[in-house]
Write a structure and sequence with these properties.
Number of strands: 25
CATH topology of the largest domain: Glutamine Phosphoribosylpyrophosphate, subunit 1, domain 1
Radius of gyration: 25 Å
CATH class of the largest domain: Alpha Beta
Distance between the termini: 10 Å
Bound molecules: fructose -6-phosphate
Oligomer: single chain
Strand content: 15-25%
Number of helices: 19
CATH superfamily of the largest domain: Aminohydrolase, N-terminal nucleophile (Ntn) domain
Helix content: 25-40%
Structural class: alpha/beta
Strand order of the largest sheet: 3-2-4-1-10-9-11-15
CATH architecture of the largest domain: 4-Layer Sandwich
Largest sheet: 8 strands, antiparallel
Length: about 600
């Protein structure tokens, strides 16, 4: 969940690494550091806090050297301290490295190494620096050393390593964590994330698992853990640098919320052949399983609901972190549909690894080009919604939903399906305007400790998603629930003034959901209705346009995203970087 990068080139590394760290800050933001080599000296600067704060204090960009590595951290092993920040350095101060991932056997290795090495941090990463030092002393050759060390380490990791006596080379190792080479002109990069070097180059080489890269100013050599040299071409990625700027918006999150009227269209533009193959598989009669985490899991729930109700195809949806029981059920007569923005969520990749060798077909929906998920899939569809920088999923959520609609409408040969899909963009535009009328509701939410989100059927996952957005951006406890479940327990928590957000479009769920709203109101709840039609039970009404019943979920989520964003602003939270959270959850 950290961001890592290395640079080698004709320019001073540190200003470039600083810019890259800012680009990757969404991956982790509790501490950061850089290391360069200059005049035969290994220079390390690191501290805790946000990158701008750290830079103000220790002036990263003034550090000299044309080779360097950098890290932005989201703490897993060890608390947030300077000692635990990366880069980590060997005892002899000859080797420095940055790491993303988790080393499972670090306790055992630490014990083995602690008689000879002096540990300064509580991290799993530091053992790698000492282990490399130990083995490099014997082998005197970086690639052989890294191969040996990688075999000793269990877990998932991507490493970028520099050796003081190899000042013209930078090394990367990939095993179950992303690592990508950026090929520039007389400069090269190696990083966890394309976004980190997109200001400098959009030509990339994707490393696969169990590969080591040796990168110089004008060459790249890839060797797998078996010692075989791998030839791999350069891919040009279409993400332009402008996509990752905030433009006129104060935060990435609100920019990304506003982009949704165009990003849904991008998501709908799928390669015809690929799309038809996807549909062919879905209708092949195999058992269908859909998985995701967080917001992507909510999409899995909507997908299952629509497959079952509209296309009459039965499917199961499960949380990737709960894959165990479902993987037992999968065999070569099964399809697994993993859904993910990042394509790097550890639980999701693990769920795939559990079943892939049983002959299960992997049909994925993802956003990040070249992600691990994209390369583990038999067939896939890309969200095409550009990089999502805000930690909370917003435009990726609606892009996923647009793809689900495209699939379902195609499966059902829905009348006017294309027209409905074409209309999504203007529906979203209309609903984005709602932000002007949310002030009073934001004040109510700001004063609350608990908020309930209720919806039935296809609106239930939207209730879950709305609650998740409010929790992560505004730090208010929120619960999304199936409206019918209210009286089976949760009603006991309703007090005078408790806000309840009722997702209540004019469809077959309307009447029953109104009854639930009345039950809550009679216990003192303040009812916030999301509907095209007002009702006397609502204390506040968020008016959404009247659309086809199947389209409502994509319309309903927009006001909920806006409420979460503006409540976060009201509370002076930074919505782009919610506390304790990281964008890609690459650890289990
Ligand atoms: C919520 C959010 C997370 C992600 C989850 C899965 O706003 O962003 O819950 O949805 O971590 O991430 P991906 O889709 O990258 O697998």
């Amino acid at each position: 969940m950290c961001g890592i990068i290395g640079y080698i080139g004709n320019n001073n590394a540190s200003p470039i690494l600083l810019q890259s760290l800012k680009r990757m800050e969404y991956r982790g933001y509790d501490s950061a550091g850089i290391a360069t080599i200059n005049d035969n000296e290994l220079i390390v600067r690191k501290d805790i806090g946000r990158i701008d704060q750290i830079n103000e204090k220790i002036k990263f960009d003034a550090v000299k050297g044309k080779i360097g590595i950098a890290h932005t951290r989201w703490a897993t092993h060890g608390t947030v301290t300077i000692e635990n920040s990366h880069p980590h350095v060997s005892c002899n101060e000859e080797i420095a490295l940055v790491h993303n991932g988790i080393i499972d056997n670090y306790m055992q290795l630490r014990e083995e190494l602690s008689t000879k090495h002096n540990f300064k941090s509580e991290t799993d990463t530091e053992i790698i620096a000492h282990l490399i030092e130990e083995e490099y002393a014997k082998r005197k050759e970086p690639i052989e050393t890294l191969k040996y060390v990688s075999d000793k380490l269990t877990g998932s990791f991507a490493l970028v390593v520099i050796f003081k006596d190899h000042v013209n080379e930078i090394y990367g190792v990939r095993k179950y964590a992303p690592l990508i080479i950026g090929k520039g002109k007389k400069e090269n990069f190696i990083a966890s994330d394309i976004v980190s070097f997109i200001d400098y180059t959009d030509n990339v080489i994707f490393l696969e698992d169990k590969e080591i890269a040796k990168v110089t100013i004008n060459s790249v050599k890839i060797i797998n853990f078996d010692g075989k040299e791998i030839r791999r071409g350069v891919t040009h990625v279409a993400w332009e640098a402008a996509d990752v700027s905030k433009e006129e918006f104060s935060h990435h999150t609100i920019k990304e919320i506003h982009e949704q009227n165009s990003t849904v269209n991008m998501a709908l533009k799928q390669d015809k052949v690929g799309f038809n193959n996807f549909i062919k598989e879905l209708t092949s009669g195999k058992n269908i399983f859909i998985t995701g985490s967080g917001s992507s899991y909510h999409i899995a729930l909507i997908f299952r609901n629509m497959l079952t109700r509209f296309a009459k195809i039965s499917a199961q949806a499960f949380l990737s972190s709960e894959a165990e029981e479902y993987s037992e059920l999968m065999d070569d007569n099964s399809i697994l549909i993993p859904i993910s923005q990042s394509g790097e969520t550890a639980d999701l990749l693990e769920a795939i690894r559990k079943v892939k060798n049983k002959g299960v077909k992997i049909l994925s929906i993802y956003n990040t080009v070249g992600s691990s998920l994209s390369r583990m899939s038999d067939l896939s569809m890309n969200l095409n919604c550009g990089p999502e920088i805000g930690v909370a999923a917003t435009k990726s959520f609606t892009a996923q939903l647009a793809i689900v609609y495209k699939i379902i409408f195609n499966l059902c040969q829905m009348e006017n399906g294309d027209k409905k899909l074409e209309g999504l963009s203007s529906n979203i535009k209309e609903v984005l305007d709602i932000k002007k009328s949310l002030h009073q509701i934001i004040e109510v939410l700001n004063e609350s400790n608990d908020v309930y989100f209720l919806g039935r059927s296809i609106h239930h996952p939207i209730a879950l998603e709305g609650a998740l957005k409010l929790k992560e951006l505004a730090y208010i406890h929120a619960e999304g629930m199936a409206a019918g479940e209210l009286k089976h327990g949760t009603l006991a928590l309703v007090e005078e003034g408790t806000p309840a957000i009722i997702i209540n479009p004019m469809d077959e769920t309307y009447r029953d959901t109104i009854s639930n709203a009345i039950e809550m109101k009679s216990r003192g709840a303040k009812i916030i209705g999301i509907s095209s039609t007002n009702n006397e039970v609502y204390d506040y009404w968020i008016k959404i346009p009247e659309v086809d019943n199947s389209i409502y979920p994509i319309i309903e989520i927009i006001p909920l995203q806006l409420l979460a964003y503006f409540t976060a602003i009201r509370r002076k939270n930074n919505p782009d970087y919610p506390r304790n959270l990281a964008k890609s959850v690459t650890v289990k």
